[in-house]
Amino acid sequence: MxxxxxxxxxxxAFEVEPDRPPSHTDAVxxxxxxxxxxxxxxxxxxxxxxxxxxxxxxxxxxxxPVTTDNVFGVVSLVFWSVMIIVTVTYVLLAMRADNDGExxxxxxxxxxxxxxxxxxxxxxxxxxxxxxxxxSLFFGDSMIxxxxxxxxxxxxxxxxxxxxxxxxxxxxxxxIVALFVVQRRGTATVGRMFGPIMxxxxxxxxxxxxxxxxxxxxxxxxxxxxxALGFLIGHFGTAFFALAAxxxxxxxxxxxxxxxxxxxxxxITRAWLIxxxxxxxxxxxxxxxxILDDARNISSPFFLLAPGWARLLLVLxxxxxxxxxxxxxxxxxxxxxxxx
Length: 340
Hints:
This protein is mainly alpha-helical.
């Protein structure tokens, strides 16, 4: 049964009543899944906007050269990083370590203190210090993600109309201020508002990804881990610096665990496996195919996946999605503070 035990920003949390008829309960459960899409997956779900572009960015101090082997290696490494870190580590393992249904770094601290209490005071203090350090890292991520995520999507307007570049920063500031004003209305309200938008987002990026794959179906070979291992071993110097950008593909994964108490493990797992993971994978594969087709597409592979007539609509949808991405880590930060 999916159930949320806490609230965020003073609003009501999602909850499934145990005495409702089965059909109604199933509908509420899927409603919780939609709410989870609107709160939990914004950050990791918008990573396809900038991850591959950052890896191959020629302006980076250590850019990855655009070659066939490197494109296959990077796309494969992105896919397997998401598979191992998010699907295996968080969804299958970490989310089972809950503290009375709550997740996040504070829940881990509590569990570790219980486990270490018979082993002495020094062990308990050491583990607690590591937990506090982890919480600090999460708060740091929560501070920078709103600016980076919203800015990256609003900058997409330059792909459509370069003359509007001077409006990027003011628009970003207005959006972020509005985001914090809305946040205080609570998890349930925010989830109902953002869930349908995120469904449209993931369906859109998945469809665009399929379009890119059809241009060069060979990119599907990148699903093999041999390309990731070959890139790491055969081009270690290049791969080492590329990892700093590839890690962008998994930013926001901690929100799955941190917000578990609000939506339940099953709802988050369903949303990830049924919609979010497949859509992101298709987008990365499609962008890789686009870069293989023409190396000049590294300038903005995500937005160039869409046909010309749809790019402005994609920019607007991306802006909405990155607002939700910012909201996801803000919600996680509130969760950590509330648990503390």
